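Weekly modeling sync, notes
Attendees: S.R. (lead), two postdocs, one rotation student

Agenda item 3: backlog of single-chain predictions. S.R. asked that every request posted to the team notebook include the full sequence so nobody has to chase files. The rotation student volunteered to paste the first one in as an example of the format we agreed on. Action items at the bottom.

Example entry:
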Amino acid sequence: MILDITSIIFKYFQCIWAYWWFFMDVFYTEDESRLISWLDENVKKFLQGKNIAIKLHMGERKNPHHLKPGFVDKIVATLKMQGFKPFLFDSPVIYKSDRNTEEGYLALAKEKGFGDRCPIVVSDESTPVKMKNMTYDVCKALSDADCILVLTHVKGHMCSGFGGAIKNLGMGALSKESKGKIHEGGEPEYKDGCTECNACEEICPTGNVRFEDSQPYFDKTWCCGCSLCVQACPTGAIAAKKEEFDTLLSEGAAAAASTFKKAFYINVLSEITESCDCMSDPGEIICEDAGFLASADPVAIDAASIDIVKKKAGKDVFKETNKKDPMLHVKRAEMYRMGSCDYVITS
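Predicted structure, as returned to the notebook:
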């Protein structure tokens, strides 16, 4: 009996180890056709059901660098061949844009050439998920789907350093109201103890900091809620109104992921720009195209994406461009048990 129990315990821990090892695998290729063939061969190992939501960003009107409809069509065709019924999904934004209404975003997406091979759903309808710092409204179309393919164009981002799979969920899988709460929650408040070192003023991406009466004021231009000034202050004189942007972003992503039945992730490392696909002008290309990654682990795929871009560029282009460590929100997503920063590249 003792041997039997020992054997059972050993097999149990073997299974746990195999489970985590499996989820840390990140498939990588520089060849688009290889990605498509790999997806065709492997997608059913990760995703089950019929209705599959493809969570993607279809780009601001004048932005030329977002995911291309032709590439998305290949993903859709592959999923259909495997018996899935895919639809493209994104949520409306809070700022002034064609994309801040469901009707406007849908019209723009079709104008850009999306939706030729499957339906497009743009919706703000959501379900609340209570987390530690706040309640996040997760888009109902995603939580209701049988499974999710999170398809992400990797690029720089003013608030998070870079935008990958976690950013795609931490903003794009949430309602307009929740998006606004994350940005507002990351905004700075002065507490006490300013030494007028100007660290906050120097790092602010919008030039929003001014000094008066030996303390900072955050009202010069506008605040994106990135929390860079909070993180840069050497004395802790500045705090976020709710919590740092990176924490709220990763918590929002974790809230969304907690509602998914099954999810898989693809990151596209092409036309990697300074700023987000939400920008009409996302800035310069900051790194040569570096390929495609696929994984069941959103933390691992983002960590691998950052490492591959660093190697390709020969430096940390995301941090250099946006003054924010791109791994900060990725590590916080790991703390929310979304996955592991440790990964194994497979091909």
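Discussion: group reviewed the output briefly. The CA atoms of residues 72 and 145 lie 19 Å apart.
Action items: rotation student to repeat for the remaining queue; S.R. to check formatting next week.
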